[in-house]
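Regression test attached.
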Amino acid sequence: MNISVNQTQGRVPVAVLSVQGDLDASNYQELIAKARELYNMGMHQILLDLSGASFVSSSGLVAIHSIALLLHGEQPPDLEQGWSAIHAVGRGLVAGPQQHLKLLNPQPKVDRTLEKAGLKEFFEIHADLATAIASF
Amino acid sequence: MALKADRDAIDDMIQAVDESATNIIVHGYRGRTGHIEIEVTREGYVLVVRLRDQAPLFDPTRAPPPDLTLPLERRRLGGLGIHLTRQFTDSMAYRTTSEGGNELALRKKVKREGNK
């Protein structure tokens, strides 16, 4: 997996976090770490560009959920503590679609994974970059 | 020998095997070194993948499904691996092996036409 970041300005600053390749148990922590780095730099709106993500496993979904927590001002789980710590987290997000984390253009296979995990309803999913940036 | 399965069936099985193998590594072996044997076969128009390991016995088919009706703010983080395995296969069956290990058999129907 490769991660790239492009910071852009809509009504508010938005970091576009692009994922290329497979997002799975071997690398999902890298994505959380990158989002944490952006958050600590003051970037509190993230557009996760999934157009280049060929595969997202349940670990990748943990990364997406963790980033939503992070942008809501929650501390994501301490990944050094393993999955028991990860499973203990999961409260504190506001109800409804997330306002600080939105998704861009997941491939059909990834979109299906989001749907089967019951996560699609919690995220705005955009097909177009400009529209996505303007939505923040 | 080519197993001849359609792309959708293969993609779904890859997702299911990834989830199952990850669970064995993370929750079974808990980061310790261990073996996973993966056998891929076809039984008629069904693609079958069997994963065998020597981690402590665990039957994932008995794991309760996650409550997907909960809003995100009340959901547990993670815990979707077995759920996705169920979702992406037509059946999953568990047995203990004669060596005292785990065997999980995943089955996915393949399309009768256009097997490539």
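Expected vs. actual: identical. DSSP finds five helices and five strands in chain A.
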